[in-house]
Specification:
The chain has helices at 2-13, 23-39, 101-114, 131-142; strands at residues 68-72, 76-81, 85-91, 120-125, 143-148, 151-156, 160-165. By secondary structure, it is of the alpha/beta class. The protein has 2 domains: 2-39, no CATH class; 68-165, Nucleotidyltransferase, domain 5, CATH 3.30.420. It is elongated. The protein starts with a helix and ends in a 13-residue tail after the last strand.
Amino acid sequence: MRRNYSLRKLQRRYRKPSELLLVPMIDIFTVLVTFLLMTAVFSRTVIMELKLPTQNASFVEPPPGLELEVLVRKDMLQVADRRTGPLETFPRQTTEGPYNLEGLSEYLQFVKSKYPDKTDATLLLEKEIPYDMLVQVMDTVRIVELRQGRELVQGELFPDVSIGDAPETGVAPSGGRR
C-alpha cells in the first residue's frame, strides 16, 4: 500500500497544469449577447431644442415687427410685445384654478393670422411656476389642435420657443430682461 501512495505522489508532482478552454466560454457569451440584444427594448426619446437667452450685455436692435412674449405669472397669462407692452391678459379665476389656455390659444391664432411668417416667441415665467405648467403653456404657444371632421389636426403657431425669467411685477415686459 505504501507503494501506491508514493507512486501517486510522484504522479501528482509531474502532472502538467490543466489548460483553460476559451471556446466554450466564447460560445456562452455569444449566446448571452444575442439573447440580450433580441430582448432589449429600445425606447424613443423626443428631444426638443430650446433657445435660451444669451448672457452678453450687448443688445442688437431687432428688425421691425412683433417681438412676441408670453408672460406666465401666478395670477395670469399675458401676451405682450417686447417694445410696446401688453397686448392681451388672461387672468385666472382663482390662484389655485387653471390657466385660460384656450383663450391664449385663440389669441395666438389671431396673432398668427396677422403675422404668418413669425415663428419665434419668448416664454417668460415667474420663479414659482410649476414645470408642468411650463410644458402646457409651451405646447399651447407651439401648436394648435383643430378638428377637421373626425380627425384632430395639429397646426403650427410659434414653434421656436425661447424661455426666460419674467420681469418683476412693477416692471413693464419690455424692461431690463437682457
